[in-house]
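Hi Y.,

Following your request, here is the sequence exactly as I used it, all 242 residues.
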Amino acid sequence: MAHFAELDDNNIVQRVIVVSNKNTSDENGVEDENIGVAFCKSLYGSDTNWKQCSYSMRTRRAFPSAGMLYSQTHDVYHNPSPFPSWILNSNAIWEAPNDEPSITEEQLSLGYENYWNEIEYEKDSSTGWFLFTPQLITINTQPSPTTVSVSVGSSVNVSAAATVSEYQIEASLQRSVVDGDGNEVWISIGDVAQSEDSSLSVSLNTGILTDTSHSGGYRIAFVPLESGVVGYTTSVTITVTD
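Below is the corresponding structure, written out as tokens. Let me know if you'd prefer a different format.
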């Protein structure tokens, strides 16, 4: 089977259809795009414009969908410009008019990313790229002590304090458990506390520890209420004895 895209007068893809191999090949079974184009025109009119495309993207780089464009210069399909100021380069790839600033590996790991602001570029053509900065948690007070031994029927308060760069923050107590595959995972237990500003000091209770199996690691997760990076305290090891 072969695929053909119908183009309008501006080379914008209108639709993609599937054509049988027998309607795209010569008498020797050799595929010929012109034969396929002629077949498409016989179905949809001699004034229509067709170009072959490939579902596997081996032909003309991309498998198009309605709204994509065909570049006669580069003989490839490509997406429309993401912004009015971006330019199609010699490889038929859209580029911003200004180079994108570099981001360090550490920033990438924390969720930083560059984004383009067309409105700001229109105000000042030397700008355009801006750095998205996620909300970052700072743990100001770690839990203490980090090892606790209690008897069954007791509960433990785990205390800590943190701030976030902006907005608000919430905290939840987490417990370390082992899943069915033998991997350590952290699950939230108990209540969630939320700040009214960018700082939060909490003392979260484990609830009644009813069995020695409740022994293990506990920590507090501080979560920014805007897009950001979750912060975790150091783990408190609680041993529950009979």
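The longest strand covers residues 184-194.

Thanks again,
Q.
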